[in-house]
Write a structure and sequence with these properties.
Blueprint lengths: L2 E7 L8 E7 L17 H14 L2 E7 L1 H7 L1 H15 L6 E5 L10 E4 L7 H24 L5 H4 L5 H10 L10 H17 L4
Parallel strand pairs: 1-4, 4-5
Antiparallel strand pairs: 1-2, 2-3
Helix pairs in contact: 1-4, 2-3
Amino acid sequence: MIIVGVDEAGRGPLVGSVVAAAVILDPENPIVGLADSKKLTEKKREFLYEEITLKAKAYAIAECSAGEIDQYNILQASLLAMHRAVAQLEVAFDRVLVDGNHLPIWSFEGEAIIQGDSKIEEISAASILAKVYRYRQMMALDKRYPQYQFAKHKGYPTKLHLEMLEKHGVISEYRRSFSPVARLLANQRNTANWSGVGI
C-alpha cells in the first residue's frame, strides 16, 4: 500500500502563509531520523529536508496566503493547503494520512491521526518539509523587513514580535484577522477617526 503523509506548519504565526506538505516515502531509500519536526533542532530539520527531497518517491509543498487565511479562517486555509499539496503529487497512492483531527474534503481514502507526526514516518517527513519551507520564508521576510526581526520569532506572537508590530505597524504579509493584528488596525482606525473630529 502506498501511503501519503500530510502535515502543515504555520497555523499559529501572525504573518505569512500556512504551508502544507505531502510525502510518499521510498522503502528502498530509507531516511534515518524522521520525527516530529518540533522535536528536532533547526540544523537536523535542514539536513532531513534535503534527505527527504532527494530520497522520497514523491513530495509536494503548497500554501495558503495570509489573504486566504483572512478569507477562509486558519483551519480551512490549512486544509486547503493540504488539498493543494496532495493534488500536486504525480505518483499514484492508496491512502492519505493527515496529522491532527481534521481531514480536507476530498475523494481520497484517508485518516486524520492525532500526533501523527510522531507516529507515522510519512507524516513526520511532511512536517519537516512544511516547517523548513515556512522557516525559509520567514528568513526571506526578515531580509526584506529586518526591523521586525522575523528570523528570531518566525512570525509567532512572542513578546518581541508584538513589540515590533506595535512599533513598526502592519505590513501586507500580516494576517489581519488574527487578534493582535486586528486590534492594532482597529486602534489605528479609532485614532484616525478621533483626530479627524472637528476638522
